[in-house]
Design brief:
75 residues; alpha+beta; 2 helices; 4 strands
Length: 75
């Protein structure tokens, strides 16, 4: 059964952001979804972290003063 995790990481630096989501990504199982609310420039941090990770599909949307990032574990 897939699990959905929600995080609010507004105000974190890119390094702190990557550290926080890395801990969760390692523990995710196929089908799990991670929803993140973060500062707008964290979409780029997410891309840097996951650009070569074929096990994850991610989408980032800028909404007003923040970004909503969704990461799904594929396999």
């Amino acid at each position: 059964m897939s699990q959905e995790i929600k995080l609010d990481l507004r105000g974190k630096s890119c390094e702190e952001f990557i550290l926080e989501i890395s801990k969760i990504l390692v523990a995710m199982k196929p089908g799990d979804i991670l929803n993140i609310v973060a500062d707008q420039d964290r979409v780029l941090c997410t891309h840097q972290l996951l650009r070569n990770a074929r096990n994850y599909l991610y989408k980032g949307d800028v909404v007003g003063d923040h970004a909503e990032i969704t990461i799904r574990r594929l396999r």
